[in-house]
Structures are given as structure tokens and as C-alpha cells.
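Here is an idea for our session: we take a single protein and study its fold together. Which protein we use is up to you, so please pick one and set it down. Once you have written the record down, we can walk along the chain together:
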Amino acid sequence: MKNIIFAEDLIERICWVIKLRWIAVVGVILVILSASRILKFSLPLFPLYIIAIALAGYNLIFFLLLTQFRRKGSFVIINRIANAQISLDLLSLAALIHFSGGIENPFIFYFIFHMIIASILLSCRASFLQATFTALLFCLIVTLEYFGILPHYCLKGFITYNQHDHLIYISGVSFVFISTLYIAVYMATSISARLRQRERILQETNELLNEKDRIKSEYVLRVSHDIKEHLSAIQGCLEPVAGGITGELNPKQLDLVQRAAGRTGKLMFFVKALLEITRIKLSKELKMDYFLFEGMLSEAIAYIDSKAKDKNISVNSTVEPTIDKIRGSKEYIQEAITNLLANSVKYTPRNGRINIKVSDKGNSILIEITDNGIGIPKDELPRIFEEFYRASNAREVERDGTGLGLSIAKQIVERHNGKIRVDSEEGKGSIFSIQLPK
């Protein structure tokens, strides 16, 4: 599990490096053009452009490799990709430096950037190995140019005379360069190691909190289930008494029994909602299958139809004809939409309207439920999907409510890799939007 987490983290960092490398390719080409055409430096343009093309080529290869292996989550393979990238970058930079002045080129200190990137991507040991590889590459270029084994490409116009054959100069620059290289790696790896240690502690803490949350949910599930059984028994006793099956009651007795039955019904509704959200939290996977979306939506509308008619609220729906079957848990998606519609009916005044619009967005569908109800206060919008939270104006309209309907809808949508949001203005109405992958 930890290797999978580290692999995902490493993939994110490699993706960041790949993006930087595209910028570097453009930067290299612009520097070559500026140096040759504007500054009039005499440079071997053909090998420099070949290096830039090679840089872009292997960057594309690494991008494709990462796309292939990221699904497998293999830490070993992804770590090798990271090491290979750094090594090739160092070789490319060494080649660019050689063909553009060698030790005279101030861009030699760009090796330091690569060491910092290596320290972020790789382990401490691997980072120091890359630093040693860089030092060897640098010394090899300097030495071969000094002895004339490799040709030296002087930056005429930038320096007054060649420095590649001055032993004191190249010794001094080499010492400063290599010492800076190792100091940079030491500092970067030290900081990176501390950050990784903190990240591991946070991950372990998060796992512990998730486990505690699971235990709490299981406890709530058991207790809620027991409460539901007792409430069902109470309802079973109250209903025949209220219906006069056990004998006629006087008005005061009937009033008390009906009030008790009403309160028991509301409590049963709350317990069922609590059981539902707890089950969603505990379920590792929802049972997914393809189903006809429009048929499911009709069933959800039918559930709230009678309550809407009681308040003379018009409910209209439009579904784009291209929307046919989608994959998901039909029962849960229907429950999420029903909860939103029930909320709209509850908080929309008499003679109001509710519009449901379902749009095809290619790989996903967008469900928008618009009403002209009481709306939600602006400062309360960020909390509206929290468990047990009810907006202040909603509590004024109706005292009884679980505060779980929107939270259940959010849990269901997110378990389907979808998104839910709300736009609302107090006194004017709300628009609840659900985006679901097909």
C-alpha cells in the first residue's frame, strides 16, 4: 500500500519534470537562435539542434511510458524511469555545454538545477550518485578539451581569449563547481528527506483517522439498526391503537397516540437516513451496471410528484435525446436525485416551479435542478453538504429535518467519481448541479 502511495507521489513529480522539460526544449532553441543570429556567436548549430530534438524525443517517450505504467503503480519501474530521465538530462546538458564553449559557458551552473530536481525525485543515495555522475561528466569534458582530444568551441564575442587550456582557471572553476554540486545535493536531500518523513507521518495519521472513522461508522450502523428495530415495534403497536382496532379512544387519548405515532415516524425517517449514509461510507464498492437514465429520472420524479401537487408546484424535465444508458448504481443515483428534488419541493413555496435539465457533455452528463424556493444564505453555502447541517432559513420554514439529505447526495455522487455543486441566492432559489461520468 505504501509503495503504491509513493509511486503515485513519484508519478506526480515526474509529470512536473516532463512539463519543465518541454519548457527547456523551447528555451534551448531560443538560446541557440539568439546566440547565433543576434549575438553572432560562432557555434556548431547542427549538433546543438540535434541535441534539442533528442531532448524533445526522449521527453515524449518518457511521457508515453509514464502513461502506460502509471496504472500499474509499480514503484520499482517508475523509480527507474525517474533515474533514467535525470541521467539523460545530464548527458544532454553536458553535450550542449561541450558544443557551446565548454568550461567558458556560464550555463554549466544549470547542472545545479538538475541536482535539485534529482534530490526531489530520487532517494538520497541515488541523488549523490547522480551528483558523482555529473562531476565525472564535467571533468571528462574539461580534461578532453584541455588535452585537445575533443575540439573546443570558443564563445568568440563573449570572452576575449580561450580559457579551456589555462590549468589554474579550469582547476579553480572545477573545484567551485563540484563542491557547489555536492553541497546543493546535501542541502536539497536533507530538506526533501524531512518533508518525506513528515508526509509519511501525515499519511499514517490519516490512515489511523480513517480506521477510527470506520470503527465509529460500524458502531453507528449497529446502534442505528437496533434503534430502527425498536422503533418498528413501537410503530407496530401505535398504528392499530390509533386506527381504533384495539377499541375506541376518547379525543385526548387519540390525540396523544397520534402525536406519538407522528414523532415515531419522524424518528424512523431520521434513523433510516443515518443508516443510509453510514452504509455508503462503509461500502468499499458500489454495485455498478448500465441502466436507462431517463427511466430512472421518471421514477425519481414520481416519488415527489404527490407532494409537489399538494403545493401546486410544477415539475418539468428535459433530457437531451443523445443520453441513453449510463453506468452506475441506479438505486443510489436515483436516491441522490430524489433527495435533491424532495428538498426543492420542501423549500419551494406554493405555486412554485422546479425544472430539471439533463445535458450531454460527451463523456459525462450534467443534471441541473432549478427551483424558485427560499434559497440558501451566501455565507452558509460552503457548509450545505455537511452532515446534519441545515441552513438557518430552512430551520425557520420547517423545524424537523435530518440535515443528511444533501450529504447523502454528495457521498453518492463522489463515489461515482462525479461532482456536485450548488448556486443559490437567498429568497430567489437554488440550482443544484450534478456531473456524472457515463
Summary: The chain is about 65% helix and 10% strand. Residues 167-242 form the longest helix (76 residues). The two ends are 29 Å apart (CA to CA). The CA atoms of residues 345 and 358 lie 19 Å apart.
